[in-house]
Design goal:
Layout (H helix, E strand, L loop, with lengths): L23 H5 L2 E18 L3 E7 L2 E8 L4 E10 L3 E2 L3 H8 L11 E7 L2 E2 L4 E10 L2 E16 L7 E12 L13 E15 L2
Antiparallel strand pairs: 1-2, 1-3, 1-11, 2-5, 3-4, 4-6, 6-8, 7-8, 8-9, 9-10, 10-11
């Protein structure tokens, strides 16, 4: 078992809140952290016709998780993305990505990710596995996560804040999007998350 660090060293706590100790006392002491919309990026890349990867992002994302920064136990993670908020900085392409060929935004207006717990791989990295739902299809997805910092914010709200970087790769065909496979639009979608989350109590 990895021993919890003292609170003054919390900036070195492992990534993505990844250690689940599972005691009832620890769960009672969990705090809620809410994603800061002003410091939040959910982006992706996908290969276009073998030439280069197209970059996109989602503009409307909200979420939270429960975490004990002493025991390093992760509780429930909940993230919701508004599907129609996808942006690739090309209006015609954005409309196509929202269509049934790709995200089916009208029929499935939200993308969700739900998880509990994780596995530490070092003092600053780990994995979090949860259920990703796109186009009404749910698949298990594992995030490779790095904890950048956990400390009281140096300005503004001044609250305890966690900074996280996370990466994963999915196949869009696993979620029912097979348009233009395999030659014209890639199957692999690389997902990048960069965010800060603010403690609420």
């Amino acid at each position: 078992m990895i021993q919890p660090m003292y609170r003054p060293a919390r900036a070195l706590l492992p990534a993505a809140l990844v250690l689940g100790i599972g005691t009832s006392a620890a769960r009672a002491d969990m705090a809620t952290y809410v994603l800061d919309p002003d410091h939040l990026t959910v982006a992706f890349t996908i290969m276009h016709a073998g030439y280069a990867k197209t970059l996109g992002r989602f503009a409307e994302v909200e979420g939270s998780f429960a975490y004990n920064d002493v025991t390093r136990e992760l509780g429930q993670v909940s993230v919701t993305i508004q599907t129609a908020s996808v942006q690739t900085w090309h209006e015609q392409r954005d409309r196509h990505v929202r269509s049934d060929d790709f995200l089916a935004a009208e029929a499935h207006p939200q993308i969700t990710f739900m998880a509990e717990g994780g596995i530490p791989t070092s003092t600053t990295t780990g994995t979090v596995t949860g259920d990703l739902t796109i186009r009404g299809v749910t698949q298990p997805v594992t995030l490779e996560v790095t904890m950048n910092k956990l400390a009281d914010y140096p300005c503004c709200h001044g609250k305890e804040t966690i900074g996280i970087s996370a990466r994963t790769t999915i196949l869009r065909s696993d979620f029912g999007s097979t348009y233009a496979l395999p030659e014209f639009v890639g199957d692999e979608v690389e997902i990048m998350l960069e965010f800060e989350a603010i403690r609420q109590d």
